[in-house]
Design goal:
The protein is mostly helical. Helices cover 76% and strands 0% of the residues.
C-alpha cells in the first residue's frame, strides 16, 4: 500500500481547508431561510453541480467502476430515464413548488391534503434517507480504512465529524458550494485514472476495449422483458424516469437544492442540466471500471467498492494519490452534509415549527435547525456503523438505490394525486401510500429495483383514486 507522507499532507490540507471554507460560508446567517434555503439566491449552475454531486458523488466514485468491473455497460440505460425524469419534474412539479414560497417538498402536500399528509411523507423521507445515506457513508469509509488500517467504524466517525463541522456552521450555502468544488475534483480523478490505465495496461485503451468486447462487457442495450433483470432498456427508460421523478421531484434532499434558486426558470435549468451531466459522469466512471477489469485481469474482490480506491493507493504517483483520495472524502462529506441539512430542514419545518408555533420565527428555526443537524449527524454515523456486518459482497450504489426505491413509489404517487387530481383527500392519500409501500416491499424479490417506483406509484394512484370514488368527499 503506497500512501506516503506527501499523500497524507495533501489529504489533510484538503480536508481541513474544505471544512474551514464550508464553515466560513455560513457567516452572516440570521434565520432559517438563510440556513436551509440560502436566502433563495444561489446561482443555477452551482445548484446544478450540487444536485449531481449530492446524488452520485461517493457512490459514483466507488461503486460505478465496480459495476462495470463485475458486469458491463448496461447501467447506462438508466441514464436515459434519469434525463427524461428530470424533464418531467421540471414541467410538472417545479411550477407547483414555485407557485408558493414553500420551505420543504412536503409543504406542497399540506396545501393540497393537509398537515397530516405533510408529516407522513416527511417521516417516510427521513427513514429512507437515514437508511440509504448510512450506506453511502459506509462506502466512503472504505478507502480511509484501506489507507490507515483503521476499522470501518473509526473511519466512519472521522468522516462524520469533519462533515458535521461545516454543515453545522455553513448551512445549505456551504453544502452547495462545497458540492460544486468536490464534483470537479472527483471528475479529475476519473480522467487521471483513464490516463494512468493507458500506460499501465499493455496495449493501452485499445487492448482494454478489445478484451472487454471479446468478454461481452461493452454491452449497453439489453432488450430483455424479464422484470428480475436489473438493467434492461425498459427498466432504464421507464423505471429510471419514474425513479428520477420521485427522487428529484419528491425527495427533500434534491428539492431543497432546487428551492435555493432565484426563480422557477433557474431551478429548471439546474435540474435539466444535471441530467446531461449525469449521463456523461456515469459513462466516464463505467469506462474506468472496464480499464480496471483489464488491469487486474478480472481478479475477484470481496467488495466491488474496494477496486478503484485500491488502484488509486497502489498505482498512482505520490501526491496524486493523496489528491484523489481527498476527492473521495470530499465527495462523501458533501453527500453526507446534504443529507444532514435536508433531514434537519424537514424536521424543523415539517414537525417542530408547527408544533411550537414558530413557523414564521426565523431566529428560532435557525437555532432549532442547528440542534437537529447534530442529531441527524449522529444517527447517520450510527447507521453506517451498523451496516458494516451486512456489507460483504455488496455494491453500495445498488443497496442505496434499492432502499430508496422501496418507498419512492408511494411518495411519487402521493404527489401525483396532489398535482394531477382533485377528488382524493388526505386519508385517501395516506392509505394509498401505505398500501403501495407494503406491496412493493412484499414483491421486492420478484422484480428488479428499477421497477419498484413505477409499481409503487401506480398502486398509490389506483388505490387513492378508488378510495375517493368509494367515499363521500366530505369524509376524506
Amino acid at each position: 500500500m503506497r500512501f506516503g507522507v506527501l499523500d497524507l499532507v495533501v489529504l489533510v490540507m484538503y480536508l481541513v481547508g474544505v471544512t474551514a471554507w464550508g464553515a466560513w460560508l455560513g457567516r452572516g446567517q440570521k434565520g432559517g431561510t438563510d440556513y436551509f434555503l440560502g436566502s433563495r439566491s444561489l446561482p443555477w449552475w452551482a445548484v446544478m453541480l450540487s444536485v449531481v454531486a449530492t446524488e452520485t458523488s461517493t457512490l459514483t466514485f466507488l461503486s460505478i467502476p465496480g459495476v462495470a468491473y463485475t458486469g458491463s455497460l448496461v447501467f447506462l440505460q438508466l441514464t436515459v430515464g434519469y434525463l427524461l425524469g428530470r424533464i418531467l419534474v421540471s414541467l410538472i412539479f417545479l411550477p407547483a413548488y414555485y407557485a408558493g414560497s414553500l420551505t420543504t417538498a412536503y409543504a406542497l402536500l399540506e396545501q393540497r391534503f393537509g398537515l397530516g399528509a405533510r408529516r407522513f411523507t416527511s417521516a417516510i423521507f427521513m427513514v429512507t434517507r437515514l437508511l440509504a445515506d448510512s450506506v453511502r457513508l459506509f462506502a466512503t469509509a472504505i478507502p480511509l480504512a484501506l489507507i490507515t488500517g483503521w476499522p470501518y467504524s473509526a473511519s466512519i466517525a472521522v468522516i462524520g465529524v469533519l462533515t458535521v463541522i461545516y454543515t453545522y456552521f455553513g448551512g445549505i450555502k456551504a453544502v452547495v458550494w462545497v458540492d460544486a468544488l468536490q464534483m470537479g475534483l472527483y471528475l479529475l480523478g476519473a480522467f487521471i485514472a483513464i490516463v494512468a490505465i493507458q500506460s499501465l495496461v499493455p496495449g493501452g485503451w485499445g487492448e482494454v476495449m478489445a478484451s472487454a468486447g471479446a468478454a461481452g462487457k461493452l454491452q449497453v442495450i439489453d432488450l430483455s422483458f424479464d422484470l428480475t433483470v436489473t438493467y434492461t432498456l425498459w427498466a432504464g427508460v421507464l423505471g429510471g424516469a419514474v425513479f428520477t421523478m420521485a427522487s428529484h421531484g419528491t425527495d427533500q434532499l434534491i428539492v431543497q437544492r432546487l428551492l435555493t434558486c432565484r426563480d422557477q426558470r433557474s431551478a429548471q435549468k439546474a435540474l435539466t442540466g444535471s441530467g446531461v451531466a449525469v449521463v456523461v459522469q456515469f459513462a466516464l466512471f463505467l469506462f474506468v471500471g472496464l480499464g480496471l477489469w483489464a488491469f487486474y485481469q478480472g481478479r475477484e474482490f470481496a467488495v466491488p467498492d474496494e477496486i478503484f480506491p485500491l488502484f488509486i493507493v497502489e498505482q498512482l504517483p505520490a501526491g496524486i494519490t493523496g489528491l484523489l483520495i481527498a476527492g473521495v472524502f470530499a465527495a462523501a462529506m458533501s453527500s453526507l452534509s446534504s443529507s444532514i441539512n435536508a433531514l434537519a430542514s424537514a424536521t424543523a419545518y415539517d414537525y417542530w415549527a408547527p408544533l411550537v408555533g414558530a413557523v414564521d420565527d426565523e431566529v428560532r428555526v435557525l437555532k432549532a435547525g442547528k440542534v437537529f443537524t447534530l442529531v441527524w449527524a449522529a444517527l447517520l454515523i450510527g447507521g453506517a456503523i451498523l451496516f458494516i456486518p451486512l456489507s460483504e459482497g455488496t455494491s453500495a450504489v445498488e443497496v442505496a438505490l434499492g432502499i430508496a426505491s422501496l418507498v419512492y413509489g408511494g411518495l411519487l404517487g402521493a404527489f401525483a394525486l396532489g398535482v394531477l387530481t382533485k377528488r382524493p383527500g388526505q386519508a385517501h392519500a395516506i392509505i394509498a401510500m401505505t398500501v403501495a409501500i407494503a406491496a412493493v416491499t412484499l414483491v421486492r424479490d420478484q422484480i428488479a429495483w428499477p421497477w419498484y417506483v413505477l409499481v409503487g406509484s401506480g398502486i398509490t394512484l389506483l388505490v387513492g383514486s378508488l378510495l375517493s370514488l368509494a367515499t363521500p368527499k366530505k369524509a376524506a
